[in-house]
Amino acid sequence: MRENPYREDREELKELLQQYQNLKRGNSHSFLEEDAFERIIDYYDEKDDINAAMEASEIALEQFPYSALLMLKKADLLLANRKYQEALNILETAELFDSNDVNLYILKTDAYLALDQQAKAVELLEAALNLFEGEERLDLLFELADVYDDYEEFDKVFDCLKLILEEEPNNEEALYKICFWTDFTGRNEESIRVHQKIIDEYPYNELAWFNMAAAFQGLKLYEKSIDAYQYAVAIDEKFDYAYRNMGDAFLRLRKYKEAIEVLEKVLELSRPEDVIYEAIGHCFHRLGNYAQARFHYKKAVHLNTEDSKLHYKIAVTYMLEEQWQSAIKHLENAMRIQRTITEYNLAMGECRMNLGQFKEAIQYFSVVVRQKQKNVAGWEALIRCLLKAEFYEEALTQSVAAMKATDGKPIFLFYQSTVLFVNGKTKEALLRLEMAMDKAPKLLKKFIELNPAILQNNQVVDIVARYKKGKKI
């Protein structure tokens, strides 16, 4: 047994390189075997000295002109130098001497692809599949999958990976890749069958469980996907991607507590990510725990300061607690990044309005209606603000403008009615109310919210009483 094989190999390589230099200079030297030239070429190639590697391959072929192996080495170097046709020519010659080397077909494929001859690459690999078995056949199937990817025959990529898994069910590379291509091609049912077969034979294959779970998730069968993910993490308790996807499935089912639990596991197992903190924040938000939602949104912001949406979400949690000034601070952060987002302007207007800063609020709401004239929420916010500020004439003008801009949305008839009542124009107000009730009686609640005291008006009560479930009685 050798005491230091690495050192011996290094000394042996050093000796070979010295002999090679002697050969180049014409000095006396020991005879270099074919495999010695192979090592010398690899040495220069690994050092990224392509020119020296190419020179060594040419000298080697002078010594061994019929060596298919050395021809393949040279062809590989030619491909690296983007001399694709030259590489193809030497590969054709190599095939005459040895057509049983799988690397011949892989290199020819690379050359065809570089020359934009995908059809030839496919034809070559499909024919070569019949010549090889075992690991070499799997190598060709992976190569064929890459060709189909390049050729944008995405279903055939899936087919190649499926064939690999039929021959080697525990092939990790194929298991990783087929998960992506299942999602990309939408072949979820087929993926479930493929992975169920693997699991039946190898029940402790966590990647197969994960892929089956992801396929269930693709079909929106979230309960089944969660069950499969739980098997994956039972086999590998540090499988962070399984916890991540399980968190998403719990979110889809609105099981926020369970989602928080598995997403926190992701944070334990992997580097912190803004999307995970954001997802946990979203869960707390939906549970009504705004302080914890904020805490996690702020963690996300620390990792991604330029995501305006995160600043906005923090602001919303403050708005839900009526902490308007704190909300404004975070909305300002969001708007420094993206000023014209509709939701940000609406939120800022809402905060200003609740602080009694009506003119500022009107400016923000006006930005929304200018940018998106058909945006009903923007018009509603603007008119509500005008009413609160007691700018009644302007409120009426904007209600008419909103009706026109939104192709006659009946909500603005209710707004017009409200303004007319406030202005003492009762007859016109009742007429508008009747028109509004005729078109959209379900919107009556919004009308009452604008002025709850209106129900003390008997004529209003009479009109409302004539409508039931959206129809005239």
Question: What is the secondary structure topology, with strand pairs?
Answer:
Blueprint: H1 5-25, H2 34-46, H3 50-63, H4 68-80, H5 84-97, H6 102-114, H7 118-128, H8 134-151, H9 154-167, H10 172-185, H11 188-201, H12 206-218, H13 222-235, H14 240-252, H15 256-269, H16 274-286, H17 290-303, H18 308-320, H19 324-337, H20 342-354, H21 358-371, H22 376-388, H23 392-405, H24 411-422, H25 426-439, H26 444-450, H27 458-465, E1 467-468, E2 471-472
Antiparallel strand pairs: 1-2
In short:
This protein has 473 residues and is an all-alpha fold.
Describe what this molecule looks like in 3D.
This protein is mainly alpha-helical and 473 residues long. Among the domains are: 1-98, Alpha Horseshoe (Serine Threonine Protein Phosphatase 5, Tetratricopeptide repeat); 410-473, no CATH class. Helices cover 77% and strands 1% of the residues. The protein has helices spanning 5-25, 34-46, 50-63, 68-80, 84-97, 102-114, 118-128, 134-151, 154-167, 172-185, 188-201, 206-218, 222-235, 240-252, 256-269, 274-286, 290-303, 308-320, 324-337, 342-354, 358-371, 376-388, 392-405, 411-422, 426-439, 444-450, 458-465; strands spanning 467-468, 471-472. Helix 7 packs antiparallel against helix 8. The mean pLDDT is 90.
